[in-house]
Each structure stands twice: as C-alpha cells, then as structure tokens.
Specification:
The chain has 896 residues and is mainly beta. It has 6 helices and 54 strands. A hairpin with a 2-residue loop joins strand 17 (264-268) and strand 18 (271-272). Residues 1-20, 99-110, 192-203 and 629-634 have low confidence and may be disordered.
Length: 896
Amino acid sequence: MKIFRIFLLIITLQTSGYAQNASVTIQMKNATIETVLKEIEKQTEYRFFYDADAVKVSDAVDVSWSSKAVSDALNDLFGKRGIAFRLIDCQIVLYPDETIAPRTVSQNVPKRHTISGYMRDSQSAESLIGATVYNKSSLSGTSTNQYGFYSLTLPAGNVDLVYSYVGYNAQSRTFRLRCDTVIHADLEGVVHLQKVEIIADRTLHIHERTQMSVINLPVAQIKSMPAFLGEVDVMKVLQLMPGIQSGGEGSSGLYVRGGGPDQNLILLDGVPVYNVSHLFGFFSVFNGDAINNMEIFKGGFPARYGGRISSVLNIAMKEGNMQKFHGEGAVGLVSAKLTLEGPIWKDRTSLIVSGRRTYIDALAAPFIAMANKTENEKTNIGYYFYDLTAKINHRFSANDRIYLSAYMGNDKFSTWSEYKNDDKGYYSKTATDNGLKWGNITAAFRWNHIFTKQLFGNTTLTYSRYRFNTKMNYDEIRKEYEQNVHPPNQVSIHDFKSSQYNSGIQDLSGKIAFDYLPSPEHYVRFGAGAINHSFTPGVMTVRDSVQKRNFGDSKIFANEYSIYAEDDIKLTDRLKTNVGLHWSAFSVGSKFYHLLQPRISARYLISPHLSAKASYSRMAQYVHLLTNSNIGLPTDLWVPTTELLRPQKSNQVAIGFTQNFKENYEISLEGYYKTMVNVMEYKEGTSFFDWNDSWEKKIVQGNGQSYGVELFAQKKIGSFTGWVGYTLSWTNRKFEELNDGKRFAYKYDRRHDVSIAVMKRFGKKIEMSGTWIFGTGNAVTAPIGIYDVAHPITFTDNKRVDIYSNLMYDYGERNGYRMRAYHRLDLSISFVKQKKWGERRWVLGVYNAYNRKNPFFLDVEEKYTYYLDKSPEKQYKYVQYSLFPIIPSVSYQFKF
C-alpha cells in the first residue's frame, strides 16, 4: 500500500514544477522537524504534505536561518536524511529521496491562482454572509456565500485585496500572488456607528449586484427597531419593506407582491417553517438573538430556490462563539429570553442555545381566576408560548465542517370552567375544558466540504413538522331524586362529550448544493434535492358517553424533487447577468407533475454609480394553505397538490434602476408585473367547519395578477440611519365560481403603502428609533342592504301568535368595500451602559404613539332613532372594531 501511494505521488510530481524561492528566519534548538515545517508555513504561503509512513518528521534538529531561501533551508534540513521535496502550486510535497532526484527550484508557475478562505467576526469567529472581497488592481471581486466562504481566481502578480462588510472595519491585504493561497479574514466590528464611514473603502453596492428585488437586513439593524410589547420581531421589520405587507393589525404573516402567506418559502437554516406565528399572529417564531443573517427575495429568483411563487425568506442562525463564552438576554412585559454561546473546543467546536417564553399565564392566571370566581362557578383562561433553538458547529479540518441545528416551539391557549349547583335535592357539576395548541419542530444536519479552492459543497438533511390541535370537552354529573317513588331514589347521571381536531404536515428532505468559482467572471451554483411530504389535512374525533366517531381525511403522502443550475456571468465591465434553470416535480397518488422554470436577471452599469436591472422568473408551488379569512385562529390547513387540485404557477417580470450616492446612500426604483395560475379559495358557503365534504371539494381554483411600482431609499452607514419605502400596487383574483366570474380585488390589495424607519445614536449611551407606516384599507365584502323578514309562529290552540324577525343580508361585489386607511407611529429609546461584566440596556417603547383607532374588522349593528310622536326608527350601520390603542412597554436587556 505504501508503494502504491508513493507511485501515485511520483506520477503527480512528474507534471508539477519545483518550489519557488522564498525566505524564512528561524532560530530553534532541539525542535522536531514537524515543528520547523509548521514555522515555515507560518512565514510563507507554502503548505507541506507527506506520507507519515514514508517520511520521518519526528527527529530533533537545530536550525539557525536568517532570511534564508526556503529551498536552501529544506536542503539543509533534509540533505542527509533521504528526503526530497517538490512544489505543486503552493504545496510542498515531501517523499523519499531515492524515488526522484534533483531538488531544485523551478520558476514554472501557473498564470492564474485562487485566493480562498472564510470571512469571520474576529471576536466570535461567526461567518460573515454576503461580505465582499475586492481586488483594486484588477477591479474584480466576489462575495461570501451563506457559510462565509469565498473564492477569487486572479492572474499571478501583485494584488491589493480589500475585505469589507457593513458594520465592520475593512481589512486590506497587499502581496504578490504566486500560487493558490488560503486567507481567512477576521474583521473587527465597529463599536460606534459614527466611525463606520471608515469601513466603506470598497463594498459591493446594490447597483453593482446582478440580483434585484432582494433585501438583506443586518440583524443589528433589526434589533434597533421599535418593538411591540418590548419584543423585537424580524417579521415586523420585513413588513416595513416596499412590496411586503402584513395581513392586519399585529399579524406576523407576509403578503409579498400580491401573494398569500402560503406562497412564501420561509427557511430557517435551510429548513422550511410552515407556521411562523406566536400569540395568534402578534409575534413571529424567530428569536432575533439567535439569528446571524436574513434576506428576502421578492422576485428575480435565483435558480437555486423553488417551491413557492411569491417570495423566499432565508434566515441563517448564528453558529456560536468559538473564542469565548458569551450570553445575552432580555426581560420584557410579556416574555423573557436568554441566549448562551461559547466554545466546546476552542477554534474547533461551538454551541449556541437560545430560549424564549411568555409568562402571561403566570401573571394573569390569579387575577382571571379571582375575577371570575363566584360561589358556584370558577373560570380560568391561560395562554403561553415558548421557543428553543440550538446549534452545534464543528470544524473537522480546514476543508470540512458540520452543523447540527434544531428549533422547537409551541403555543397553547386554554379555557376552563366549573359550575356547581346543589339545591333542594338536585345536584349538578359541569366542567368544560377547551384549548388550542400549535407548534413547529425543525432539525438540520449540514456538511460543508471544500473540494478544491474553487469548488465548495454543502450537503443537508432536514426534518420539519407542524401540528395544530383543538379540543373541546364537556363533562356533566347530575344527581337527582325520583319524585314518584317512596322513599325517593337518588339517580346519578353522567353526560360526557368531547371533540378533538388534528392537522399538520411533516417533511423529510435531503439536498446537495455546489458553489463553483472558476474565475471572477463566473459564479456557478448547481445542485439537487428531494422532499418526502406527509400531510394530515384534518381529522375530527367526536366522543360521547355512547360512541366515538371520526370525520375528515386520511393522511396523504407525496414526494417533491428539484434540480437546478445557475451562473452569475460578467459579460463586460458594464453588463452582468445571472442565468439559471430550475426543474421541479411532484408525485402524489397516480399523478406526476413537473415544470421547467427558467430564471434570468441582468444588470447594466449606466455610470459608476447608476445601473439598470431587469429580471424574469417562473415558479411552481405544490403545497397549499386553505385559509379561513373570517377567523383569526391558526386553523389554516396545509394540503398538497392532488389529482383534482393543480399546482400553483407564477410568471414575474421586473425592471428597475439603482443608484448609489457618496458610498452611504442607496436608492432603488422597481416596477413589476406578476401573473398567478391555480390560486385557491373556499367555495361560497363552505369553510373549515364544514365536515360534510372532503376538503378537495370545498376548493375552487382561479387566476390572479399583481403589478406595481416600488421605491426604496436607505442609509446604512453613520450615526443616523434608516430608510423610506413606498409601494403603489394593484392585486386581483378571478374565479369562475365566485363573484359571477368577474375579477375582484384581493383582500390584501393595497393601493398605497408607505413606511419610514429612522435610527439615531447620541454618543455611546443613547439610541433612538422610530417607524411610521401608512396603508390603504383592506378590501372586504360588506352587505349593501339588509332585509328584516318576519316569520309568524302559531300555536296549536290558536290562542297565541308570536312574530320573530330574521335578518337577510344582500352582499355587493366581492371585496368591493374598503376599510379606513391604516397608519401608526412607533417609538423607542435605549439607554446603554457598559458594565464590568458586559453591557446593560433599558429600552422604553411606545406602540401606536398617537393612539390611532385602526380598523381590525367591521360589523353591522342596529341603530334606533327615537321620536316623540311616532315609533322609533330602526337603521343599520357599519361599526369598526379596533385592536390596539397606545401601548407603552419597557424591557431590560443585557450582554456578557
């Protein structure tokens, strides 16, 4: 086996050049050869490779070299030891001397070499995603991928590299490139934003990127925004972006360019998350303290993404501090959270754990019980949510790294009551126990491997599960005496009824993805994946004292497949394009759906600071969400494409302009047009609560379209930062079975949408932020007429006739009425103080600062007008119900 390895080594070396000259200065006594080789590696670009069985490096030696050429130093070291050496690029291979002779240095080197490595935070070794590497000499550069890896192939010669990332001091490296080189750039974070301007020596600005319709938000910027009840929410910040809106007051759902919440692919460390809501939509499941980076694509989708038709939200969790133990947390009005991270094995293995829980139930339960307790009755209401994230990151070698991450979260809402009656021989006890419970579990195992300096691979195995459960229990015990029996006989009667509903979705998936960077003119990505879906559309179990019955649909199993390839190509200094193709397929029952989805984006530099962009993307979606628009509970059902239900498809084109001003300001203007096929709605008169038919028979499919213009201006750098966003858009739907087949406005069609966000730092101790949003009111279906129809009831003795009325509503055009406009101002101020143990921060906030009565839903109520000379006149009017008035909040945050 040893001979075979040496033989392969000889063949390899016959095609390689000899070592280049470089000099070292080393003074060592009684050191092993291995120690000397490691010191040479530190002082040069060379790396040593050898077969430990064939080359002995454990001998002790004395060396005294001053600016000595490496070739001469190695001759001194190995001249009498029977060891020879050769260079392959910058790799010095050691082998037994008798296999190959002469040990000399050749000047025959490749003309192009690759610089690769990772960009990391210098304090935590956390990967910097989307950071920029730029060579001033050749005016070419690249950016790091989702794992912080970069690769840049350049001509041999002098290079002047700049490593930069927003919020970090830039780092420069100037040297002569002679061979493939590994450089890990550890950047230092900027403590005070006033000094951030020094970092922007060269950053890949928005006008230089090929991609359009994408927003990348630094987590530090997200966490500085005003928070609802003191809890910062990443989804709320995304709703401030043009083209993205919420479903309503407090909702954490996203409606992107006219799409629904099920049309967003939301990935947490590469794992789909199917329900992102806590507290009935008022909070999201994502804990900002555990997030490293997030970006959302609204259009111009790269070929590597698929499975949804409106957006892709990619959230990367932190990897864990590899240098030292660190923690942060907060205590607010309704919840508390804590994040701990640190090295298990310094520079090799790290762990991060983050948890959050509400204590509304613990604080409110005694007051609720006291307020509802009477002599015969007790009532209690409870609610809580929690989430827990954890991640382990381990480096096996310079080329191999693994990650194991997991998320678990649950919401639970319950009501309980008990009523007793003990009166003159009659006794009864009634108990009701009702509840809702929903939650997610996700897990991911990832292996990163650097195959070559230009080829990076990532293999991922994931698990995702979402479940929703409801229960309603009624239990009554009665004891009464039979009156016609002497002596009276006591009879005990037990009446029990319960119902339980369960639904959910479970995924098992695997994916392999590659990044290949042969030159600065090409960034190639390709890969494949498969998902095994298990759907539980909904099963209702009903029990009583006599029997048990089940209603609903059985489980459905399906498989989803995908293959993709894309290339980010620099055609000229001005023109750059991303061209890709995504193929996906879905197998369910006897059906096999598949679709080719071309993607293309292009950028043309009109001037050094102004560019024009255009994109086209075709998308397919095989999983769907049945949404009940009339209730605010998480009763939405995830269902698959079937033989009857066709996959959703979309086509989107966009064109825009981006401008950069003075390195600190960016502005973009985009127009888009999107068509959607096979979107879904419930049929008229059917809903979640209708158990007479299968869910497939309750659905109608139709078409939709959305188009509009988005303006976004932002300032990311300096003590004063923020953005302004404006969207003008139209969104509609058309179903043959609804609204007489006529096109109608989508419920979340919003003509005008404005958002303003500002953040200001005053010195080192005070930070202020504020947001103001405005939006056209939601479209709703409202009655345009009400008829009071009288119904007489005649009893059999013909002595009494009662009249009761029944209101009949005449509805107009579907979604033909608009609620009032929505607008709100949120403010926040933070007081920061450095302590010996770390940093503490008091955050005071105000939600809805000027107490705007924003519409939550509309209802119709009776109104009477009274007169002196005639009977009162009854009328009907719309009544608006609002949810949140002005709400102050306070939270205590800390870092150590």
